[in-house]
Specification:
Shape: globular
Number of domains: 1
Strand content: 15-25%
Helix content: 25-40%
CATH architecture: 3-Layer(aba) Sandwich
Radius of gyration: 17 Å
Number of strands: 4
Distance between the termini: 39 Å
Length: 161
């Protein structure tokens, strides 16, 4: 699959097979994802793998589709609002890189915002100088839904004088 196909074919997966995922491969994808653009090479992301007790405490309605891999992704808040926004954008790029690398290797992902609630932050022990960007579930997809139509980019483009 070329990059364009990976981008167009990637889906959010909400149901995973019970097969385990090689932890070293996940670590390699995370390392490669770290080449995401980030202002002044701040590398503002932190990855926190979630074990079974913490997973149960999160009490996600779908149990993250029974994914074998679960981690939260944090973004350092930075010294001011501009740096915070830059860091959040960098972490989103990092996550997109990870999800595309996983998909290219037959692994699906699910990006949940469950950790953003006050309870989620407490359960995940998010330090006060970090934002939680999401909880990522990863595994072999049990089902892959069809792509939904996207809005024509022509409707999203504006030109300034």
């Amino acid at each position: 699959m070329n990059l364009s196909e990976v981008i167009k074919n990637r889906r959010t997966i909400k149901k995973f097979k019970e097969e385990s995922i090689d932890g070293e491969k996940v670590k390699q994808w995370l390392q490669t994802a770290a080449y995401a653009p980030n202002h002044k090479l701040t590398e503002p992301w932190e990855i926190v793998f979630i074990g079974s007790e913490t997973r149960a405490e999160l009490n996600h309605k779908l149990n993250f589709g029974n994914a074998p891999v679960l981690f939260s992704i944090l973004s350092h808040k930075g010294r001011n609002e501009l740096e915070r926004e830059e860091n959040l954008a960098a972490v989103a790029c990092f996550l997109q890189n990870f999800m595309l690398l996983a998909w290219e290797n037959g692994v699906g992902t699910f990006w949940s915002s469950v950790g953003a609630s006050p309870k989620g932050k407490q359960v995940l022990q998010v330090p006060t100088d970090y934002d939680i960007v999401g909880v990522i579930a990863a595994g072999i997809p049990e089902e892959i839904k069809e792509a939904k139509e996207r809005t024509s980019i022509d409707l999203k483009i504006k030109h300034l004088k």
